[in-house]
Each structure stands twice: as structure tokens, then as C-alpha cells.
């Protein structure tokens, strides 16, 4: 069974968008790492960072100098970063639009799931019909459905086990006026050969494997932290990498009712592990970022502040 999600739909890269964040890839691009790095330490304040400091920090994550400089330039062209010059020194920071997008998206990604609320066995279905010529509208509509937890049962029929009618009404109207139908219904199992049940819209085995991979990769890290073995550049690199890895999981996880999930679902353990690493390294990593930034500035840049998972989930009110 092929994967039920298309990562390019979740993060479309249309030229019409005012802020075009890096398109998701199988691995992490230098642009993605740069955005994660700046968001992790300047999202609340939009602090200016010397470009040389950003390059130096990225080089500690095995990004070449040329690739780091190219990433900064491309992010500025995309509207993610804005720059300024002070003599021979150039500095960059997140634009207001990018910081807002990242704060809202970050809150949605790291907010804990609301347990396993009762399910009435009804599904929300969204049917739509858009001509192939309106490809940008189709991508935008499908991306919005992904963000709301829907998956395609068939090409033009998307499903969710949750009552999303209010969200659908608010979010989909601009995409396809007159071309969308929304309804709530129960599934009738007709036992037809080759028939598809709504749960078949998700490859739960593949998503479970993603959780298992995350837990397997990161479980050795907390003991190393407790032993004081993760410091300086490694603390920043680990904190950036664990965020970059974890942020994909809540997007892929459809938050299905517990009875529809396979046993041993690792959503909770994966989140607990992520929080332990991300929050546990915040102070150490912030100190290293400050030190690197100070090497390339006349005075230590103000506003470099690491945030915790709880602060990001709460929406990160601007300060400083």
C-alpha cells in the first residue's frame, strides 16, 4: 500500500504565497535547518543574527559554508528572512509573516493530543470537484484538508473521523466556492470485494513505523544528557535535529480514535521523548548560540532566547 500522504501537498510551494517556506524533502535541506535554527532561538523576538553566525551554526550541523550562504539568500528571496547591513556586516531575521506562520504552525504541531475523546462512529466527508487546469487551487485545497486531519479515500472524497464541519466551513470556502460538499455519515460495511473502508485512507502501519523509528533513534539521548555528554555545538545540533524530525510526526498522525489504531501506538512515548530532549537542552543550546553570535557582532545580539515545548504550544507571545 502506498503512503496516504503527499508531503508536497502538506507544504505547497506556490509562487503566489507571500511566504514560501522550504518544501519538505525526505531528508533535511540546509534551508529547513536554517529556518528551524532561527525559529528555535529568535521566534519570540525576531532578533537579528549576523549572517556569519548563522553560517557558523549551520556548519556545526554539517552544512557547507557555500550551502549555508545559499540557503540564507534563498530564504530572503522567499520572504522568510529579511536582511540589513551595518558596514561590512550583514544580519538577518525572520520576517513578521514567517514568524507568525511558524508560531501558529509550531503551536499546532507540538500541542498535546486531547486524549481519546468519545467517537460517535460518524465520519466527516468532503467531496470536491476542480478541473485539472486549476492545479494551484487543487493543491491548496488538498493541503488545507491535510492540515485539518483529512485523508483521501478516493481522489475527490476525503474523510476524517472527527466532526470538522466548523473548520471546513471556515477554511475551505476561499478555495473552491460552489465546488465542495460536506456531510457527516456512518460507514456501512457491504463486504464487497475490493471495497474500501474509511480507515483505509490511512496507512497506519507506515505511520506506526515512523513513531518506532523516532523512538529508536532518540532513546539513547536522554541518558547522555544526564551524564553531561551533550553540550555546546552538539546541544544545538541535537535540539535542532530532534525538532526537525519530530515535527513531521503530528502532521502524519491522523489522531484517529483509539479503537481504530493498531496496538502499541507510540504517539505518547514519542512526544515525551521529544519534550525531554528539546526542553532539557534549551539552556545549554541557547548559551552556545549566544556565544557564536557574539563572535561575529560588535556587541552580543539581544533577543536570543530558547523556548520550551509548552511555550511554543501556548502560542509564543512576542516579547523584547
From TrEMBL:
<dbReference type="Pfam" id="PF08223">
    <property type="entry name" value="PaaX_C"/>
</dbReference>
<dbReference type="InterPro" id="IPR012906">
    <property type="entry name" value="PaaX-like_N"/>
</dbReference>
<dbReference type="Pfam" id="PF07848">
    <property type="entry name" value="PaaX"/>
</dbReference>
<protein>
    <submittedName>
        <fullName>PaaX family transcriptional regulator</fullName>
    </submittedName>
</protein>
<feature type="domain" description="Transcriptional repressor PaaX-like C-terminal">
    <location>
        <begin position="202"/>
        <end position="290"/>
    </location>
</feature>
<feature type="domain" description="Transcriptional repressor PaaX-like central Cas2-like">
    <location>
        <begin position="117"/>
        <end position="191"/>
    </location>
</feature>
<dbReference type="InterPro" id="IPR011965">
    <property type="entry name" value="PaaX_trns_reg"/>
</dbReference>
<dbReference type="InterPro" id="IPR036388">
    <property type="entry name" value="WH-like_DNA-bd_sf"/>
</dbReference>
<dbReference type="InterPro" id="IPR048846">
    <property type="entry name" value="PaaX-like_central"/>
</dbReference>
<dbReference type="Pfam" id="PF20803">
    <property type="entry name" value="PaaX_M"/>
</dbReference>
<dbReference type="InterPro" id="IPR013225">
    <property type="entry name" value="PaaX_C"/>
</dbReference>
<dbReference type="GO" id="GO:0006351">
    <property type="term" value="P:DNA-templated transcription"/>
</dbReference>
<feature type="domain" description="Transcriptional repressor PaaX-like N-terminal">
    <location>
        <begin position="33"/>
        <end position="95"/>
    </location>
</feature>
